[in-house]
Each structure stands twice: as C-alpha cells, then as structure tokens.
Specification:
By secondary structure, the chain is an alpha+beta fold. The chain has helices at about 30-45, 75-85, 105-120, 145-150, 175-185; strands at about 1-5, 10-15, 20-25, 55, 60-65, 90-95, 125-130, 130-140, 155-160, 165-175, 190-195. The relative contact order is 0.18.
Length: about 200
C-alpha cells in the first residue's frame, strides 16, 4: 500500500495574540517511536503551558490529546490537519507558551490547527510503501533459490545468519508479500514467518 508521509523533521513558530505556538512534526514508523517522540518533546518543552499532540500510523493506530487545553480545542485540530493532508507515520506536537491573552475555544482551535498545517506545509511530503519484515529459515542447499527469489522481489536484507541453517531477515513491499511467500513455499524445506521489530 502506498501512503504519504514526511521526509525530514520540521519545527515552526507562530505568534498569535502574544502566545507562542511551536509546531514540531516528526516521522515515526510505529507506536513505540510515536511514544518516544511525545516523551522527548514534553521533556524539551517542559516549561511550556501545554503540549497538545496527535499522531497517525499506517498500522491504523492514532491518538490525539489536548494536554490540559479545553476539550476538543487542541489535539483534534492537530489530528484534523494530519487527516486533511492525508499523511501517515507522523507525530505532531504543538507547544504553547501562554502570552497573557485568552484566545477562547474557537481561537485555540484555529491556532492549533493552523500551526499544525504550517508545520506540514514546511515538511517535504513523500510517498512510501508499507512493508513487512519476514524471517526465512532454510538449509544451505536452498540458499541459491532463496537468493534468487529475494532478488526477484527486491527484498531488502536486514540480517543474515549462517549456523546449522541459514536465516535471512528481509523487508519487502507489503503488496508483494503473498506472491513472494508463495514462490518460496515451492521449496518445502524453507520456513517463513512475519516478524515485528
């Protein structure tokens, strides 16, 4: 499956009625990376009044939080910006330093949403494909066949191990996974399993 995401992390700054909004967008590939991103930005901006955020992953996982702002005024507008641009595997935190002027709920919705959009607009959006990581275990006599199939499907080798049996850990385009495994299964001495890293 193809999806849009960002290539580089971006930080932008918006000043709205003396409040400073810092929008940070980062690429994350899984839930652990998203949680790490949120944790590190909360530490980095621990002196801020609020750190609302949102993330969305190709796995279907997503989350948004107002982080103490009125309900629906911060996290959801950030998440809506992610949805508008139809991007995945991103985490956005919009940090607010209160400037003394209350914005009201409509003002907060606009400020958080626009800062998230500002960050996305400044990021380079690219298209990627979802991948699966698989482990192949095989006898040495099957090495040439495994190598042939891996090259045919342009699988990326993540790990090679040769002991009693050969072990390859590969990353492959998710759309090709079924054809790839069907071809490998023609040699019944080869075992295949999808792994998560």
């Amino acid at each position: 499956m193809k999806f849009k995401t960002i290539r580089d992390d971006v930080i932008v700054k918006n000043v709205i009625k003396r409040s400073v909004f810092i929008g940070t967008i980062k690429y994350v590939s899984n839930l652990a990376e998203a949680e790490k991103c949120l944790k590190s930005l909360k530490v980095q901006y621990k002196d801020a009044n609020h750190n609302p955020h949102a993330f969305r992953l190709t796995s279907g996982e997503y989350h948004y939080s107002d982080d103490g702002e009125p309900s629906g005024s911060a996290g959801l507008p950030i998440f809506n910006a992610i949805r508008r641009f139809d991007i995945y595997n991103v985490c956005i935190v919009v940090t607010r330093y209160f400037g003394g002027v209350k914005l009201g709920i409509p003002g907060l919705i606009e400020a958080y949403g626009k800062t998230a959009e500002f960050a996305i607009n400044n990021a380079k959006i690219v298209e990627e494909k979802t991948t699966k990581t698989i482990e192949i275990v095989f006898p040495y006599s099957s090495f040439n066949y495994v190598n042939y199939v891996s090259n045919k499907f342009q699988a990326e080798v993540l790990k090679r191990e040769f002991k009693d049996l050969g072990i390859l850990v590969l990353k492959i385009d998710e759309d090709l996974l079924l054809d790839f495994t069907e071809l490998l299964k023609k040699d019944n001495r080869i075992s295949i399993r999808v792994v998560n890293f």
